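Practice problem 4.
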């Protein structure tokens, strides 16, 4: 992530001077939830929903409170839309990036099919589960020349142009779910909470290292660490009942499992992704030209280890191993010796019918 922001690991430092944005794309609202604020959801009218639950909450919740992120009324919450939005988040992102390229080409007066000959859109994004168990995407978007980070973008490629293209694309993305006799057809969009902050090499705006650290923090966090799902697949309905999650997340899992039985949603493989609440993407995704790759890093590490290994002449390195046998650890040996000694004493006791500490063996 950091190399794509400031260079390094075969990425030129000139990427700091390219048009770059730190963008946050959110999920829409599926129903009001408790939030950590001065007052959660104050309402003067005191109205209740159709299920008899209050539409507001005047309590003050701490960020760690168990109620934060839970629906005010679980019966009003649109769990079906939540799960299907997760299942189509990848398609929303794909159409978003296509829209950004299309908007850039239009603004530059280029045919859309020729955009790749003049510029290249590079990005890295991270998926973060919010407390309401909905995925948000944090992404760094950079505009390069047609060959990638080694190539300067054209003169018309500016940060303002990229910002406008991103905002327009985010507002226009629309994905329809497959029609279902039980559910109907849903129209899915990004949430209204959208943020695009320019990244400047002169220190104005968010700091490059701070952005890289912020995004990298979520690479090490799975769904279970944020309380939104678990890190292993579920194979049966009973697994959902015993999963260590909140009632809100458990309902999302059950919705995922039920929708997964409908033939029209079979391509979404919702039951296989029940543990991530229907979200089928990776935590970290990047375009090919954003920065270095794991393969390149592994090759560099292997080369470094081979060059620095201090071995005597004539040393042969064996790369193939097979298991032969294992012996007792010191602790296991002591335990085995103790068991053997105890058995010997028991046999002696039975043979001689001795009385030990006032009791017969």
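Answer key:
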């Amino acid at each position: 992530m950091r190399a794509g922001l400031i260079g390094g690991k075969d990425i030129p430092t000139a990427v700091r001077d390219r048009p770059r944005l730190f963008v946050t794309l959110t999920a829409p609202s599926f129903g009001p939830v408790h939030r950590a604020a001065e007052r959660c959801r104050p309402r003067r009218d005191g109205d209740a929903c159709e299920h008899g639950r209050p539409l507001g909450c005047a309590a003050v919740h701490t960020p760690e409170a168990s109620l934060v992120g839970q629906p005010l009324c679980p019966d009003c919450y649109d769990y079906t839309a939540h799960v299907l939005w997760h299942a189509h988040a990848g398609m929303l992102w794909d159409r978003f990036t296509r829209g950004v390229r299309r908007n850039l080409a239009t603004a530059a007066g280029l045919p859309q099919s020729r955009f790749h000959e003049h510029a290249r859109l590079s990005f890295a994004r991270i998926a973060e589960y919010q407390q309401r168990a909905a995925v948000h995407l944090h992404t760094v978007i950079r505009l390069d020349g047609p060959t990638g980070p080694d190539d300067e973008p054209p003169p018309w490629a500016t940060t303002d142009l990229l910002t406008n293209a991103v905002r327009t694309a985010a507002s226009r993305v629309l994905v329809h779910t497959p029609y279902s006799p039980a559910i109907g057809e849903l129209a899915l969009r990004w949430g209204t909470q959208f943020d695009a902050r320019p990244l400047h090499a002169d220190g104005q705006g968010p700091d490059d290292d701070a952005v890289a650290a912020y995004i990298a923090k979520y690479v090490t966090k799975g769904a279970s660490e944020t309380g939104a799902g678990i890190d292993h697949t579920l194979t049966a309905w009973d697994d959902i009942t015993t999963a260590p999650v909140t009632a809100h997340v458990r309902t999302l899992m059950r919705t995922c499992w039920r929708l997964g039985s409908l033939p029209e949603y079979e391509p979404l493989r919702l039951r296989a992704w029940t543990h991530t609440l229907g979200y089928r993407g990776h935590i970290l995704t990047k375009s090919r030209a954003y920065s270095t790759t794991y393969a390149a890093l592994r090759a560099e590490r292997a080369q470094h280890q081979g060059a620095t290994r201090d071995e005597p002449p004539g040393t042969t390195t064996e790369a193939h191993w097979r298991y032969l046998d294992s012996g007792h650890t010191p602790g296991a040996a002591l335990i085995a010796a103790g068991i053997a000694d105890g058995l010997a004493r028991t046999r002696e006791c039975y043979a001689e019918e001795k009385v030990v500490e006032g009791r017969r063996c």
